[in-house]
UniProtKB/TrEMBL annotation:
Keywords attached to this entry: Calcium, Disulfide bond, Glycoprotein, Heme, Hydrogen peroxide, Iron, Metal-binding, Oxidoreductase, Peroxidase, Secreted, Signal
Protein name: Peroxidase
GO molecular function: heme binding; lactoperoxidase activity; metal ion binding
Principal cellular location given in the protein's record: secreted
Co-factor(s): heme b; Ca(2+)
Plant heme peroxidase family profile domain location: 26-322
Species the sequence originates in: Hibiscus syriacus (Rose of Sharon)
Residues involved in Ca(2+) 2 binding: 195, 242, 245, 250
Binding site residues for heme b: 194
GO cellular component: extracellular region
Amino acid sequence: MMTSAMFRAAAMAMVLALSFSACQAQLSSTFYAETCPNALSTIRTSIRSAIARERRMAASLIRLHFHDCFVQGCDASILLDNSPSITSEKFVIQNNNSVRGFEVIDQAKSAVENVCPGVVSCADILAVAARDASEYVGGPSWTVRLGRRDSTDASASLASRDLPRFTDDLRSLIDLFENKGLTERDMVALSGSHTIGQAQCVTFRDRIYSNGSDIDAGFASTRRRNCPATAPNGNGNLAPLDLVTPNSFDNNYFRNLLQRRGLLQSDQVLFSGGSTDSIVNEYSRNPSTFSSDFASAMVKMGDIEPLTGSAGIIRRICSRLN
């Protein structure tokens, strides 16, 4: 006999399956083939130029897409500035002075508007930019499904609730991702994007001064050199998430976790005696498996609750409503 808890779980699974099937049917890799055939090449040129100027931007663009999709779906709500009718998501604790790359998306949008005005959404540009960023730094590529439309609102409250924090434990992370229809394996694969990019001292200070058993002593000592113990001194000082190959997309992130050299607490919990240890082990040994799973997880993430058809709008400027 099905219990109420089992019924709720089954109902949720059905809703997620139907939602995923619906967005698969509505999004298409050829969405702009007739209305803006040069859209993807125009975006790619803009994104590659931005990363050529600053390698770190690749990580920032992947993260920007992620932080968009986890808040009311992949709708470019994260790009909206404060206005009389909008409370921006940019200033919640998980985003403030942290999420970046807005000007790069603006530049790509401007370039596309010059080619075909009012056709390509900011949400689709975010999705394409993340793919192009991964590919540029040696990571996997994937076919981006397109046809998302832009939101007419943002939600700071949902951003605060739904975005992971660097202090989260494993159970909290698993729950956040499962709530978006993503599995533990998806979560670990997506976390592997931390093989590139940097983090601020304020996000890892407690970990490197904890003298805990889950951090390598030599690694902690090295990281302390540019991260003073007393806040707010050095809060914004940066350190690479992967000390070994910080500018290349590879599987060293997972090798670091095996050696207790995850920079953020939310990184190291993926290899801490819990249910994700085996996945971390697998990715540390098989870079091709990680690469394939990362690409699949990015496609799956890009399908979270898109606005399609007549829903939403196509913003002419990504940071504000038309």
